[in-house]
Design brief:
By secondary structure, the chain is α+β, with helices and mostly antiparallel strands. It is built from 7 helices and 16 strands. 29% of the residues are buried.
Length: 258
């Protein structure tokens, strides 16, 4: 189950890439570069024949109940037990009405997505996921569906399918449905039968295992970090983490003590 993926930009740059109209520009700035369940992320929908960028909450919510503690400023007084983020069995009532209606199909942009690592495969306390990407493509899209929700506004999920030969040895349960660019229009206009046809593994030869983006981001910041910044980053990193190992390697390169 994919419950984490990397966002391509902070939202407002996406329309230029996809030639989409951004009708919610003032709301699309996002605090994080990741999408996670119950949090907002940019998606693309078709309205009146044009591609429009909108912000929606990831996951179809279920299990609404009052918050046990007083809500902080900006928080809802309610919590939800689960957000259904991945749609596999499209005949289920949870999914079929929205899969059947192309007006409720969307494109979900991403740069890289995560699948959980088994404990034995982890190289450190911050090495929890395998990361998959498409070399040579800055942004790709999952096949998404969306619906209105009384509490969250529009919410979305995306389809999953059997894993391809790259993903299967590492995560045998499933992988997201990734669309070829030439299938974007087809997905946005597909009925139920057309959606089933597109629910297929992406070619493994067009994918690769990628680095942990947090580690890559950390190393990219090293040239701009002062020695004191580096010490602060070390203190903030989890004990036993790969991030600490990378920071220590940079400290040694600079001739610093721990």
């Amino acid at each position: 189950m994919c419950n984490l993926y990397r966002l391509p930009t902070k939202g407002w740059e996406l329309p230029d890439y996809y030639k989409a109209e951004d009708v919610w520009r003032q709301h699309l700035a996002l605090d994080k570069v990741y999408a996670s369940p119950g949090k907002p992320a940019p998606v693309l929908v078709r309205e009146d024949g044009r591609l429009v960028l909108k912000r929606m909450v990831w996951g179809f919510p279920e299990g609404k109940r009052p918050r046990k503690t007083k809500a902080k400023e900006g928080q809802s007084p309610w919590v939800w037990d689960k957000y259904y983020t991945n749609a596999r069995n499209l005949t289920l009532g949870l999914w079929k009405p929205w899969v059947s209606d192309p007006a409720h199909h969307c494109l979900v942009p991403f740069t890289t997505f995560a699948e959980p690592k088994a404990a034995a495969a982890r190289g450190g306390t911050d090495d929890l996921n395998w990361w998959f990407l498409q070399p040579g493509r800055a942004v790709a899209c999952f096949a998404g569906i969306w619906k209105p929700d009384a509490d969250h506004g529009p919410v979305y999920s995306f389809l999953t399918c059997d894993p391809n030969p790259l993903v299967a040895p590492l995560h045998p349960k499933a992988m997201p449905v990734i669309l070829q660019p030439e299938d974007y229009d087809r997905w946005l206009s597909a009925g139920f039968d057309g959606a089933i046809t597109l629910q297929a593994p992406f070619p493994s030869q067009l994918m690769a295992l990628g680095p942990n983006p947090d580690h890559a981001d950390l190393e990219a910041r090293f040239p701009d970090m002062t020695d004191e910044d580096l010490r602060g980053a070390y203190r903030a990193a989890k004990p036993g983490s790969i991030a600490r190992e990378r920071i220590l390697a940079e400290a040694r390169r600079r001739g610093l003590g721990q």
